[in-house]
Fold this sequence. Notes:
Elements: H1 2-29, E1 31-35, H2 37-40, E2 66-72, E3 77-82, E4 96-101, E5 104-108, E6 130-135, E7 138-151, E8 155-159, E9 165-171, E10 178-189
Parallel strand pairs: 5-9
Antiparallel strand pairs: 1-8, 2-3, 2-6, 4-5, 6-7, 7-10, 9-10
Amino acid sequence: MLRKSLVSILLLTVYLGSCLLIYNSENNTNKTSISTENIEKNENTANANGNANIKNINKVENKEDIIGTLTIKKLNLSNNIYNINNPHNNVDENVTILNDDINLIVLAAHSGPGYIAFFDDLDKLKIDDTINLKYKNKEYIYKIINIEEQAKDGTIEINKTDNQRLILTTCSKKDKKKQLVITSILEKDDFE
């Protein structure tokens, strides 16, 4: 009787382990990662006096370098987005585009104290709130479908889908080892 029980437990353990391996391998194939290493190098958005350590924040060298404008009415935020290869496309000056594929746009900015903490109020957004994006002379409205915190390890894990998405990310206010990740899907585009 004891032998049958041990064999049953062993078979059940092998079965459950196999299920877990299959689940993990399927989950990993449905995700992609976006690098956030460049934004994690510079965490300090203000000096000891609360003044931002910035340079040329409003200087536009060439209008063609601006590829869009992010607008979140609920947060009273409107900020230009520079071409991904432009030197102004960095979190020490602006909202930064990390991935400029129209099917998956990822934007990052600082939160916390300081003039360049453009995403400081991002944690006030809720599911179904809207985000407007003018991108390469086309208008888009996105609706927030997911808000989560992920480990701050140099990447953002993103589920693969056929939906056109805009993802916003910044450091978590609750845990310095985490990042806030807000996922929105395209609701409407090229409207007048």
